[in-house]
């Protein structure tokens, strides 16, 4: 696929975090002009099977600790995993609400409180279940010169999307957090309607 967007690695700076030391790479781009970030651990250049997490922004989960979803815990888990391995990349993509934005996601939450699931709420608002795409993530991985990746995900669409964009995904690392009473229905919908690899270990179901 021909990608016309231009991406520039504008700033790199060390970032010590509670999960360990990373180098933060700030990117600008001509596709959506948003501030996408890569947190890089170790020298990933020309490496095979680099652990990569592509995290989609979730203000409510990542910043506020919302229990409605699994995003915040997945973010912590992914950074810990990459730190432990001493090598890897966490890409923080500004695709809030599976690409529909914060306002629409909050409206979707209200629809879910009226009985819709996370997929039907998106459809009701006039969107696809998932509006995300991964061109910018693929360009960032190309800029970082990783040869092949082990993608940290439960989402088959992410693997397909990146592969179509020319990223060599050679392995998957699961990232399943323990469900809580608030997000259990949401996670079951992701498993049943969005084909996420969740609840596959019988000891993890309710
Ligand atoms: N529209 C909408 N977006 C949501 C909802 N709950 C979480 N999100 C967003 O979903 C995105 C995260 O998607 P997930 O499906 O949890 O995870 P994923 O990144 O596709 O898959 P994994 O790699 O397996 O974690 C973030 O952008 C969240 O803001 C919801 O009910 N509706
Ligand atoms: Zn979330």
From TrEMBL:
Cofactor mode of binding and number, as noted: Binds 1 zinc ion per subunit.
UniProt keyword Zinc, yes or no: yes
Function, in words: Catalyzes the conversion of GTP to 2,5-diamino-6-ribosylamino-4(3H)-pyrimidinone 5'-phosphate (DARP), formate and pyrophosphate.
Domain GTP cyclohydrolase II: 9-174
TM spans (from-to): none
Organism: Methylocucumis oryzae
Keyword Nucleotide-binding annotated: yes
InterPro entries: GTP_cyclohydro_II (IPR032677), RibA (IPR000926), RibA-like_sf (IPR036144)
Name of the featured protein: GTP cyclohydrolase-2
A Pfam family annotated for this UniProt entry: GTP_cyclohydro2
Gene3D superfamilies registered for this protein in UniProt: GTP cyclohydrolase II
Binding site for Zn(2+): 58, 69, 71
Gene Ontology CC: cytosol
GO biological process, one term: riboflavin biosynthetic process
Active site annotation, chain numbering: 130, 132
Gene name of the record: ribA
Catalytic activity: GTP + 4 H2O = 2,5-diamino-6-hydroxy-4-(5-phosphoribosylamino)-pyrimidine + formate + 2 phosphate + 3 H(+)
Top enzyme class: hydrolase
Alphabetic keyword roster: GTP-binding, Hydrolase, Metal-binding, Nucleotide-binding, Riboflavin biosynthesis, Zinc
Pathway(s): Cofactor biosynthesis; riboflavin biosynthesis; 5-amino-6-(D-ribitylamino)uracil from GTP: step 1/4
A GO MF term: zinc ion binding
Binding site for GTP: 53-57, 74, 96-98, 118, 153, 158
Family: In the N-terminal section; belongs to the DHBP synthase family.
Superkingdom to which the source organism belongs: Bacteria
The protein's Enzyme Commission number: 3.5.4.25
Necessary cofactors: Zn(2+)
